[in-house]
Amino acid sequence: xxxPQTTVIDDDHFHDECGVIGVFGHPEAANxxxxxxxxxxxxxxxxxxxxxxxxxxxxxxxxxxxVADVFGSKDLAKLxxxxxxxxxxxxxxxxxxxxxxxxxxxxYRHGSFAVGHNGNLVNATELRxxxxxxxxxxxxxxxxxxxxxxxARVPGNDAGERLAAALEQVSGAYSLVCLTExxxxxxxxxxxxxxLVLGRLxxxxxxxxxxxxxxxxxxxxxxxxxxxxxxxxIISASGIESRMLAPTLPRRMCxxxxxxxxxxxxxxxxxxxxxxxxxxxxxxxxxxxxEADIVVPVPDSGVAAAMGYAEASGLPFELGLIRNHYVGRTxxxxxxxxxxxxxxxxxxxxxxxxxxxxxxxxxxSIVRGTTSAKIVHLIRAAGAREIHFLSSSPPTIGPxxxxxxxxxxxxxxxxxxxxxxxxxxxxADSLGYLEVDALYEAVGSRSLxxxxxxxxxxxxxxxxxxxxxxxxxxxxxxx
Length: 479
Description:
Blueprint: E1 5-7, E2 18-24, H1 29-39, E3 47-54, E4 57-64, H2 67-70, H3 73-77, E5 83-89, E6 104-108, E7 111-121, H4 124-133, H5 144-153, H6 159-167, E8 172-179, E9 184-188, E10 197-201, E11 207-210, H7 213-219, E12 221-226, E13 231-236, E14 239-244, E15 253-254, H8 256-261, E16 267-268, E17 271-272, H9 273-287, E18 294-297, H10 303-313, E19 321-323, E20 330-332, H11 341-344, E21 347-349, H12 351-354, E22 358-363, H13 370-381, E23 386-391, H14 413-416, H15 419-426, E24 430-433, H16 436-443, E25 450-451, H17 453-456, H18 465-468
Parallel strand pairs: 15-25, 18-22, 22-23, 23-24
Antiparallel strand pairs: 1-20, 2-5, 2-11, 3-4, 3-5, 6-7, 7-8, 8-9, 9-13, 10-11, 10-12, 13-14, 16-17, 19-21
């Protein structure tokens, strides 16, 4: 008899996206890429891959699981060369299977080409149908493969020109790292939905492309600049060339990068993520003052905002919930599991901290509300007298189609219920959300240009959601 297993999922949080790394001009490029992927592991845990180039030949190694599961010293030894790209994945489009791991690696009439993609193409289905009618054979169900099929069909004197021509046909969010036999290429979509930064390796003088600056720190690279929306950079032995892919469009960086996705120690488009999250906590304290005894975060995503709330309110900050960081994606169920077992395997409430207390509980978001209800129950069972739940993001009322997996609108609790109704559904004594205007006060001026479609319904790129039918899940493991 097989022992049943449970998948550890927290569906009250946005899911990670993907992370990309590129290295040029280092004698151990694959090893360095491996370190960069470690730093970006929070952006995807389903699969990992590296492609390296040496003497005009590209070699790859990819696998399911986290970086440490996929790569050992022997695997990295088989990836020689001074340039490489890497990818950690959470599936936006395409299933979580080996054939959908990235980077995507092809050989075509112009040579070899590999690409790693963070984002989501909203017209991928239409392009795929057109390409299939023209005779294209797809090996995956990822939108990323659409890019390489377009690349193989367009004219151009070099890989940069061909990639630019291919990207003219796609619509949506993308930050790309690409590798040829002699070049590392990075590209960011014209609205800059997803981050991409350029760094310089301190020891070798080579270059790094990465989703976040936290990867540069581990790789021994210094930050040079953000890749601009609509920019392509081509790095070769001759240096760095910059090209603009499209006319300038209004910047629309995903606001949830600052709320949740990015690691707190990263700086994205000039904004320090940790500081922004603490400022959100300050604003929450002003908007939602509570008569309480302690401030408790839902770890790890609610920590910085809870610290900010405690700092602004003068209330003590306490770790009333302790997270088990060593639980994988699945675990074996006991025969007699109690209520909220899936949450308790990740989080443990501390009665010594919570008993008899009026608690301000801070989390980054509420999506379906199911896990929020379980956490409230967990804290109340530990003896808390009152629980005042605060979300450091506004109510999520719409799906995302630009690289975040969301359930449809009918499953989003804030799209179907009032704040008072949600408060009762999750079992809290009070509930407060961050307001959209207050979010911009904390993160930066609205004029900087952000995408907040999941909160406002204002989609920068129009999408017929039901027609497109491809989006990520808003499902996530507790961090």
